[in-house]
């Protein structure tokens, strides 16, 4: 139910877009019937199937371009720019598609594609403008607002509360305040005790019970040390987390703020990688994994046989790991340790010159060959080529309690290699994990195809130099 409320703007807008694109196909066909019939004959389509296929094509373009991301009370100018970018890209691709037809002159093709782009752009831009205007009107009437809680009980929180109540176009209906330090509200803040609906430790149940959609962190300037604890507690991908920056943060330029009708807000851990990059990343994962597994299959079988012959036990080691959003999956690796190495000790860290590592396992680790079977995990979608390394549930539970923001690593797919792997040494202690977590969080906040390429290149160099452990 909470997810449905969160995405209702996306669902409503996408349905309207689809209907408008479909209608524009019918309208455009009436102006250029001969040309459109020639194109449909070339692709073995009829009038109806052609319209549906083109409409679906446009929906894919708009999704990949991020046109359905964060539509709630978005700026109408931002909507205009989104539609402009997506329609230009989609029309450019269509131009190259119809360019293969030699029965239509180049000049006619240009006229057709420009006219079609103008039709699509104007109708969709008008649709978005009307929808956002109506949405803003209802927000001014106090309807359709996001259910919001404010973290903090000081004067800053009270000011934020008053601003949200005074200006409904901010889109937030405040349900109450959350205590951070367990103390009663500041008497000078004007917040009454009955307006406090819980403490920070109870925030997960409060979010669930009250169907919270937005969380606004409004701490006092002298309570900045509580910010890490707040972010650690509020780690739900289905809830938008925003920070009300103080004057120092604004003028220092340390925080990138978004203006929501004049109210400066910092969104905590937004998605840095746009959908088109995510799509390319996933396609690249599948392509590379499939090609490597197919081309090296005989070699991989020989390694498996060598593992079996070198020491008793299976060739492939299976272990439960924690993946994206806390989902458990089974990871595959070539066995590099003695069979049942943790039977008596339980889950433990590997150490340098670990006596449990076999002779063959030492070289498999050194050359990172033991990780190759994880390409099967990549194909299945449990992992990616690049991302934070997946950890066992035992350690995830332990680290989550000891390392601030550790669980934010679970917001992305784990990877075979990652920024922490190329920048830090192998884990041998809790301090090592803390340092690697810093690198993982940096990657999550700055993820891009360019950064993935840099990590993969560094990994290849590490393998060639034999610096694995």
From TrEMBL:
Pfam families: Bac_transf, CoA_binding_3. It is a multi-pass membrane protein. It is found in: Membrane. InterPro entries: Bact_transf, EPS_sugar_tfrase. Residues 281-465 form the Bacterial sugar transferase domain. Keywords: Membrane, Transferase, Transmembrane, Transmembrane helix. The keyword Transferase applies. The chain crosses the membrane at residues 7-27, 47-68, 80-99, 111-131, 283-307. The lineage of its organism: Bacteria, Pseudomonadati, Balneolota, Balneolia, Balneolales. GO terms for cellular component: membrane. PANTHER family: COLANIC BIOSYNTHESIS UDP-GLUCOSE LIPID CARRIER TRANSFERASE (PTHR30576), UNDECAPRENYL-PHOSPHATE N-ACETYLGALACTOSAMINYL 1-PHOSPHATE TRANSFERASE-RELATED (PTHR30576:SF0). This is Undecaprenyl-phosphate glucose phosphotransferase.
